[in-house]
């Protein structure tokens, strides 16, 4: 059976990228990760992709005349690789109309809060500083807003009195690494 071809988009460390790749080796998520797209050519996730033998498209958006030109190049690479699904995993850039139109309803994002609470940057820090008792992880489809698309799944986490921002981040990431592969498998196999 031909597997769905998917790309992961990431800008930083790539622990979620790694979790997806490893879960796919163990549990067969129903796709093949054929491309890593990275907008920060020196990011650690690029080395991770190389280690796992995943082809990369690491281009700096600043070297293009516009966001549209950058996204056209990315879309061309995605089409070349026959990609039909995109998983954003710490991709620190708002997806623009060019990419959204090309992959309408097929772009999924992970966000480290219980959306709609704490959208945007530094969601873990926002929740920590707000002294809320509960935060969590959300996986959702992307739309033209910032962290506003339809929610697919969420998992809540109690913030403990002993938590620092660092321990909270670690506990959130443990959830992310388990939840993202699970949701991908669910979405691709229903
Ligand atoms: C994750 O917390 C994810 O929810 C957010 O960015 C972070 C990426 O971490 N969107 P990593 O690069 O996967 O380690």
UniProtKB/TrEMBL annotation:
Pathway: Purine metabolism; IMP biosynthesis via de novo pathway; N(2)-formyl-N(1)-(5-phospho-D-ribosyl)glycinamide from N(1)-(5-phospho-D-ribosyl)glycinamide (10-formyl THF route): step 1/1. Its EC number is 2.1.2.2. Belongs to the GART family. One of its GO terms (molecular function) is phosphoribosylglycinamide formyltransferase activity. The record marks 147 as: Raises pKa of active site His. It is an enzyme of class 2 (transferase). InterPro entries: Formyl_transf_N, Formyl_transf_N_sf, GART. The keyword Cell wall biogenesis/degradation does not apply. This is Phosphoribosylglycinamide formyltransferase. It comes from Virgibacillus phasianinus. One of its GO terms (cellular component) is cytosol. It catalyses: N(1)-(5-phospho-beta-D-ribosyl)glycinamide + (6R)-10-formyltetrahydrofolate = N(2)-formyl-N(1)-(5-phospho-beta-D-ribosyl)glycinamide + (6S)-5,6,7,8-tetrahydrofolate + H(+). N(1)-(5-phospho-beta-D-ribosyl)glycinamide binds at residues 14-16. The keyword Transmembrane does not apply. Gene3D superfamilies: Formyl transferase, N-terminal domain. (6R)-10-formyltetrahydrofolate binds at residues 67, 92-95, 109.
């Amino acid at each position: 059976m031909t597997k769905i071809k998917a790309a992961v988009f990431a800008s930083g460390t790539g622990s979620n990228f790694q979790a997806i790749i490893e879960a796919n080796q163990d549990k067969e998520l129903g796709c093949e990760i054929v491309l890593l797209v990275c907008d920060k050519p020196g990011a650690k996730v690029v080395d991770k992709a190389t280690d796992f033998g995943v082809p990369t498209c690491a281009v700096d958006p600043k070297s293009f005349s516009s966001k549209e030109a950058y996204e056209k190049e990315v879309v061309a690479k995605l089409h070349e690789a026959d990609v039909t699904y995109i998983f954003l995993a710490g991709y620190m850039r708002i997806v623009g109309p060019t990419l959204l139109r090309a992959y309408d309803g097929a772009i999924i994002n992970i966000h480290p809060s219980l959306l709609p609470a704490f959208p945007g940057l530094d969601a873990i820090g926002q929740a920590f500083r707000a002294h809320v008792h509960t935060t969590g992880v959300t996986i959702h489809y992307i739309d033209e807003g910032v962290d506003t698309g339809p929610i697919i799944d969420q998992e809540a986490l109690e913030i403990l009195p002993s938590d620092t921002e660092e321990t909270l981040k670690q506990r959130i990431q443990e959830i992310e690494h388990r939840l993202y592969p699970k949701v991908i498998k669910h979405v691709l196999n229903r």
